[in-house]
Specification:
Layout lengths: L1 E7 L4 E6 L7 H22 L8 E6 L10 E5 L10 E7 L6 H16 L4 E6 L11 E5 L6 E5 L1 E4 L5 H6 L6 H4 L8 H15 L3 H15 L6 H6 L2 H7 L1 H24 L7 H24 L4 H8 L4 H13 L3 H5 L5
Parallel strand pairs: 2-5, 5-6, 6-9
Antiparallel strand pairs: 1-3, 3-4, 7-8
Length: 338
């Protein structure tokens, strides 16, 4: 079943799976990849060599299959009611991990099981890691070799692209990819070019804030100079981004849920109410520390320790809200109990 959602761009159905990567900031990367695909799918497919003509509407997917469910689809605006729209399955990976081929294989199989169609698969690999992860096919055989299932796809090695040529395509949605492409320019100069490019291409303030926030997330895959992120809008732009605020809120909810469930599973107070409350408070404190790290990066061990000691869930809720909106770490610290 397909449910409408997203914005119009591009051509063809697009089956999106942004992920397969975990670690610091990977929730932001996964969400940023999905946002980029939903808003700029046409630009990404153009980079993969697909010539598009019509518009595309992002759709949510609800495929009832007892495995992973892809994040979404883009549906082409078809003028001919008898035409069959093309399907595109897209995977983003921070590295060419060895598990990437299996992810592509699984998602292509999932598509066939759910909608009886084989989409055109393409994997955007942002940084190399293992040669096996850049494979363009995967095959599974039965024990006697009588039966086999094989799948293939296209791999776009973003780390081999030329940043200047990426920007020269004139597609705003490719700005994040320019930050992981090859360049002979110093990091700060490239960041300045990307910022000017986005400012020139996107006039809507909300969309510009979201795109620059995604640019910062992609830039973290390659750069650690804080000046790069300030050029791309820094904390102020991230705070203005509705997408980034939702990512922070979702990540907070996830950590709280995980810590509460862990406390219950570990038998903390043997399932008593106080055990659940303690687990929830620990989860909120952990989430609060993560939000501060993502927003300000230079959080001192003393501040983290003071936050971790707080066991009042209501106070942690207040601090979480302030952490998402305060303009500086100093203004947040002033609210911490001594």
């Amino acid at each position: 079943m397909l449910c409408p959602g997203g914005t119009q761009r591009g051509s063809g159905f697009l089956l999106v799976r942004a992920g397969g990567n975990r670690g610091a900031g990977m929730g932001e990367f996964d969400s940023g990849s999905a946002w980029l695909m939903q808003h700029f799918g046409r630009a990404l497919l153009g980079l993969a060599g697909v010539t598009l003509s019509g518009g595309v509407t992002a759709l949510a997917t609800k495929l009832v299959v007892p495995t992973r469910v892809p994040d979404g689809l883009l549906q082409a605006d078809v003028t001919d009611p008898t035409a069959v729209p093309e399907l595109y399955l897209v995977e983003f990976a921070t590295r060419g991990e060895t598990r990437l081929p299996l992810q592509m294989y699984d998602d292509l199989a999932l598509s066939w099981l759910a909608i009886q169609r084989v989409p055109n698969g393409v994997a955007f690999v942002l940084w190399p890691h293992a040669a096996a992860g850049l494979a363009e096919s995967h095959r599974e055989e039965s024990s006697r070799g009588w039966s086999y299932v094989e799948a293939g796809w296209k791999v776009i090695r973003c780390f081999e692209l030329d940043a200047t040529k990426v920007l020269a395509r004139g597609e705003a949605g490719l700005a994040p990819l320019a930050l992981v492409a090859q360049t002979t320019e110093p990091a700060l100069r490239l960041a300045e070019r990307v910022r000017k490019f986005v400012d020139a291409q996107i006039t809507d303030g909300a969309e510009q804030a979201n795109l620059l926030a995604v640019c910062q997330v992609f830039a973290e895959l390659r750069y650690n100079d804080p000046r790069v992120f300030e050029i791309l809008g820094g904390r102020k732009m991230a705070l203005q981004s509705a997408w980034m605020r939702k990512v922070w809120a979702d990540e907070t909810a996830r950590v709280v849920a995980e810590r509460t469930a862990a406390a219950k599973a570990e038998g903390l107070a043997e399932g008593k109410a106080e055990g659940k409350a303690e687990g929830k408070a620990e989860g909120k404190a952990e989430a609060l520390v993560q939000v501060l790290r993502r927003r300000f990066r230079d959080v001192s061990p003393d501040v983290e320790a003071r936050v971790s000691k707080i066991d009042n869930a209501a106070l942690l809720d207040t601090l979480l809200n302030h952490a998402l909106s305060c303009r500086s770490l100093q203004s947040f610290v002033r609210l911490l109990p001594h």
